[in-house]
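so my prof wants the structure for this chain in the tokens format not the other one, which i didnt know existed until like an hour ago. anyway here's the sequence
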Amino acid sequence: MITEEMIGRINELYHKSQKEGLTEEEKREQQELRQKYIRSIRTNMRANLNRISVVEEDGTVTDLGKKYGGIKEC
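here's what i got, hopefully its the right format
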């Protein structure tokens, strides 16, 4: 899970990279934080999509989480 502190650190490293550049250690830290952030976004998006149900024209309800939830494309 991504925290506000992690987001703050990502932004801090970005601004530093624009002004003066980053050390190799800071570049690795920035990359790791960005990967964690992207994984968190994907996990949250997948959870939201798995909660969607569609009401068909005939009145039946299709739970998309049950129908497609097992597919991992992220």
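also thought this was worth mentioning. The mean pLDDT is 91.
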